[in-house]
Amino acid sequence: MSDSLIEVTDAVFGYGGRAVVRIERLVVSRGQCLGIFGPNGSGKTTLVRGITGLLSPMAGQVIHQPAETGSSLRIGYLPQHRNIELHWPMTALDAASLAISARKLFGWIGSRTQDVLKMMRRLELEHLASRPFAALSGGQQQRVLLSGALAGSPTILVLDEPTEGLDVRSTQELLDLLREFIREGMAMMIISHEADDLVQVSREIAWLHPAPQQGEPSTVEIVSPEALGEAILQAARRVG
Amino acid sequence: MTTREGRRGIRSRGQRDRGTKGQNGEARAAGGWPVTRVFNPCEARIAFAATLVLLFFSVLSLTARGQASKPADQVDQATQDVLKELGPAATQPAAAPAGATAQTPPEQTDEETTVSWRQLIVLFGWMLATAGAVGVAGAILGLFVLLRREALVALAIPQVVAIGAAIGMRLGWPTLPPALGVALVALIYFALSKRWGAGNWVVPSFYVAGLCLSFLIIANHGQDVEDLQRLFTGVDVAVKPDVAAVAVPVLLIVGVVCALLWRRWLLLAQAPAAAELAGLRPARWDTLFLLLLTIVILLGTSSLGVVMVLSMLFLPAATVLPWVRRIPAAMIGGAVLSLVFLAIGFYLSNTMRWPMSQSVGGAGFVILAVSQLAAQLRG
Fold first, then answer.
1. Where do the domains of chain B lie, and which CATH numbers do they carry?
2. List of chain B residues with pLDDT < 50
3. pTM of the predicted protein model
4. CA-to-CA dists, residue B305 to B130, B290, B366, angstroms
5. CB of A106 less than 8 A from some CB of B
6. Shortest CB distance from B33 goes to which of A53, A77, A103?
7. In the CATH hierarchy, which top-level class contains the domain A1-74+155-166+182-240?
């Protein structure tokens, strides 16, 4: 079985007939992390929606491979902890169970709670399970959400700005965890405007360049982490 | 595995090889959606179908019996009927309707007082049962209304319902079917406006329109104006057995359905993208929630008036929220509190000669204020 899970070829994604982003070729493979990097408004979210199938391509094709024989591709999603509405009364376990409940009939998770607890134990978060989610630190919240997303055993995990708002230590802990799961064969797509973070975990980075003329779609350049790091460094030198 | 796919649309090789139905029951939507749609079409359809069936039968039953929610004048008539049926019991001083016409009995012994409370509960049994069902369903729905920050929608729906009721009054029809029709049209518009990202003007405008148009429609029709005012104020609350026989089970079912779906509401509020990737359609679930809310408001308003429904929607949930860690606890606590509010309101209504709905709302608000204050002090 091929390692590639998603293949995108000559695709254009957009809304309402307006092209937002154009990409020539992109492959998401198991055991690898694809970084999605670009300035605000360049179409990062649109690109990810297109790759994951939430948005039909206006042109080109997107091919989803089955993860295993006879099974479907499971795409998990890790939301930003900052986007969680903390006025909802919920424990850390409730928050971690979000991802699994999404795939269960009427959201009834039943015995799958044990899977979530198992993952929380692996991430050393079990002692937080009954604590109110709102009472946790930002780093703990993000790790709790990650444990839930991982407990769903996704083939591909999409992470939206996972290190946003985290301190240096929490960021490093989170990236270490992500590397661990990538080594175990999970595919990841990380949306971030933090080039440093992407360089640490990604094998390839889809760099979105906004079109110089308004109305034209952004283009995507696939670069290595080293190339992105060098480009950022040069840009910093120019500014400096 | 194929090497060539259509020009447009997502294609899953495994999915295509298996046809349009996946192993786990996942279906592929037209246009080539990905293979991750587990359960969505099935459960959404089941939920919608069940809700629509509930709605259909409740309307059918109410209209077939000619009760059709003409709350104000029907309430008066209903009270008269109940009093007649009870005969001697109705002549007891304490057995007067809760609210405006209640009379305090002269001096009574303890035994007589006990008997009169029992008689009161029997006399207003159907009203109490309906109010209890409105309380339980309202507390559960209201919890999510507050958490989803859709309080304004909940406030606007009764006003919109009043437009339909006014149309019914003006044309001499039963009021429930036109009220339901107008509510459904408004519901669809609310859902679409949310989807389109329309401005914040939509819901407040409907609120004002409901307040104004409902009275303009029946302007210069004295009795109808009085009836509509009673609908809003909910001063007279009496419910006939056949109305309660429909409203109570439907309300309880709606409350239970909403409660069982609590993880869905939580997911859609916290991680709509995760829901979408799992094959759910957030817009459809939002519409389902609004539909459940509309059923509670419609049945509650037509049976007991706007004040009782809004009291039960907002006050129990707001009272219990500072004290709970989880949604199930909030739902149970809210439902229990709504019954406490009802009991206190019923007691006050009959001992102080206060109107029933306002007694429930007033008692509820005082308890809410104490709860919030205590929560602030607790930190």
1. 1-38 (no CATH), 43-378 (1.10.3470)
2. 1-39, 64-76, 88-106
3. 0.79
4. 12, 19, 21
5. yes
6. A53
7. alpha beta
